[in-house]
Design goal:
By secondary structure, the chain is an alpha+beta fold. It has helices spanning 2-24, 35-40, 46-59, 62-89, 91-96, 121-136, 152-167, 172-180, 188-197, 202-209, 212-227, 249-261, and strands at 101-104, 110-116, 140-146, 235-238, 241-244.
């Protein structure tokens, strides 16, 4: 990826350099004001221009790093703005989808949305961050957006989870903690075992697992993730920002404070 960015930066640098030399060396498209300068100097062909640019960049390679940094910054800003626009346009689906589990204060002014997979080791570690947020800040509403991306076992575990939430929403938080905090890989059998431990009838659970609304919810979540450039777990939406990865409690608190102080990430 970085090689591609460097190559792009080099192409941009060369293009601008050639444009500049073209202006100075009698390019047909130059403004009339450059004619005197062009006529007073030697006419350079393409090969000569490329050699000058090459020699200059070799002598001053830090320019490529400056161009690369500027290009990366520009692209990150464009992505951030696009994500903020997507969050505004899809706010109801992101923050208030009827199929998502909700923990914490339902009337809190700040909502944290986590895209997670039950077989994501980083999500397991990040569960401690969630618990710390919920115990240390009563102004946080935590939305769990089920995002099975780690294979068939994950898909089945999340189907059970969605069915469990529909049947026993008041116990969903405990189900989530037990399944995500369990040892070994989560799948249909382990998820059903947790559901039974919490008192949900297996026959009723299996019937609910066939509800087509579960697959529709997954499809909507996958589409949202694509629009937000989310490809891994855990990923968070906080205010109008997207946070990628298990970056720790301090980062999450920083984003929560920013969202509370400024609901519009562009302000």
């Amino acid at each position: 990826m970085k090689n591609a960015i460097v190559a792009g930066a080099l192409a941009v640098t060369v293009s601008f350099a050639m444009l500049a030399f073209g202006f100075m060396a009698g390019d047909p498209g130059r403004p009339a004001g450059g004619q005197a300068l062009a006529e007073s100097g030697p006419q350079l062909d393409r090969g000569a221009i490329e050699q000058i640019v090459r020699d200059y960049l070799i002598a001053n390679p830090e320019i490529l790093l400056e161009v690369q940094t500027a290009l990366e910054t520009k692209r990150e800003e464009e992505k951030r703005v696009a994500q903020a626009e997507t969050i505004r346009a899809s706010a109801e689906t992101i923050f208030n989808a009827p199929y998502d589990g909700v923990l914490g204060n339902p009337d809190a002014s700040v909502t944290v949305v986590e895209f997670f997979d039950y077989n994501c080791s980083y999500c397991k570690r990040a569960m401690d961050d969630m618990e710390a947020l919920l115990s240390g800040n009563d102004n946080v509403r935590f939305v769990l957006k089920e995002f099975p991306i780690l294979g068939p076992d994950s898909q089945q575990a999340h189907i059970v989870s969605m069915a469990f939430r529909a049947l026993a929403p008041e116990k969903y938080g405990e189900f989530h903690r037990r399944l995500l905090g369990g040892v070994g890989r989560a799948g249909e059998a382990s998820a059903i075992a947790v559901a039974r431990e919490l008192g949900v009838d297996e026959a009723a659970l299996r019937a609910e697992m066939e509800n087509p609304a579960i697959r529709e919810a997954f499809a909507e979540t996958y589409e949202l993730a694509n629009e937000l450039s989310i490809t891994g777990t855990p990923s968070y939406v906080i205010g109008t920002q997207v946070v990628f990865g298990a970056l720790g409690l301090d980062v999450l608190n920083e984003k929560i404070e920013a969202a509370a102080a400024c609901p519009d990430a562009l302000c």
